[in-house]
Amino acid sequence: MRNLSDTIARLTRLPHGLPQTALASTRLRAFNETRPNPGQLKAWIYVPQSASLGAPLVVVLHGCTQDAAGYDQSSGWSRLADQHGFVVLYPEQQRSNNPNLCFNWFSADDAARGKGEARSIREMVAAVHARHGTDPQRVFVTGLSAGGAMAAVMLAAYPDVFAGGAVIAGLPFGVARSVPEAFDRMRGQGHPPVEALPDLVRSASSHSASWPILSVWHGSADQTVDQSNAFALIEQWRALHGAPQTPGKTALVHGYPHRVWSDPSGRDVIEEYRITGLGHGTPLDTRGSRHGEQAAPFMLDAGISSTHLIGRFWNIVPDQADYGRSIAPADAGGAAKLCQQPGQAAWSRDTGVQKTIEEALRNAGLMK
Description:
The chain is α/β, with parallel strands linked by helices. The protein has helices at 4-11, 68-75, 77-84, 116-132, 146-157, 179-186, 197-202, 228-241, 306-313, 332-337, 353-363, and strands spanning 29-30, 42-46, 57-61, 87-92, 139-144, 164-168, 213-219, 249-253, 256-262, 268-275, 282-284, 299-301, 327-329. The protein has one domain (4-363): Alpha/Beta hydrolase fold, catalytic domain (Rossmann fold, 3-Layer(aba) Sandwich).
């Protein structure tokens, strides 16, 4: 691991400007329960009128500097829920836990089964089942950046709870246990050997049944979380599923490379979207989607709806509900795009990273 002075020196070269949270939405309602909440998280929920007994449950984890209402307003998860009858739960970080509203995915006290924030989210899921009768066999979790890394934590710590997940610009489970390690991994430095990654998940619980399916999204121009993390995440879960190294399906969806891995039974268990030219954020389609996606800091209009396509991969959004996606087999040029790292587009520029990281280092006592 790089020493702290080197970490700080690299971080100070990042852009300035702290993004503002999106305008609050009134669609979400506070979700209060008396169950244990060791991570001291807030919770918000959306239960559409179209939801019936046994509806799927989607858990959505916002990124740093964001909140539940802002993420929902931009991503459109609650509006997609209106169309397809699933329930949406938004755990929300508090500044008393992390001044920058990041989920503490790198903390041993918060990122393990039965502990801290991970247990709080698990208890929230149980409370939703009890109150709203959602289907315990169809629970899914997704998140952006630190929320994406925390989604990976939930899949690893509670594979018996979640049927699937989606990690957007996030990191693999178990690769960092401190703030300096977290920032090194974000920059693509110091990852464990590929062959050791699956054991990090296996050791997180006593689970021995089938593993959750996984959707991985990452921008090729992401300068906040290096795209090598997407590769490591895929390798971590590919081995668990026993999927071959080479994806069985390769296509271009809305012009972006899409790869799919299947397990030995032929079930699609991992997919990856590599959004060429995109920086750090959730890919949106503000004009083509039919559930009102809106651009905001770290919520980026890329002409592709990660919200919709993740729901489709989880099979809670039917194929016939597609919003007009274009799919074509990837030719040689398309396949080559999977490995390209093009220049960063103007609309994909990462902002606010330096201030956020410096504040996190100070709050951890690692920087004055």
